[in-house]
Amino acid sequence: MRLILALLLPWLQFFTIGKPISGIVCLILQLTIIGWLPAAIWSVYALSQYKTDQKIREAGMRR
Length: 63
Fold this sequence. Notes:
By secondary structure, this protein is mostly helical. Helix content is about 85%, strand content about 0%. Helix 3 (about 20-30) packs antiparallel against helix 4.
């Protein structure tokens, strides 16, 4: 679900992972037609980093 959100509304995805400043910057980038693709790529990358961080936290709690 978040991947679809990252592709369609990249700026909103940043707010769902707790990065509001990045979301605002992404929204400004997305307002230009040319900036939509870099915003979507940045959003997908940030989502993958968020998932990695979640897995690391979960592994640390298991110890």
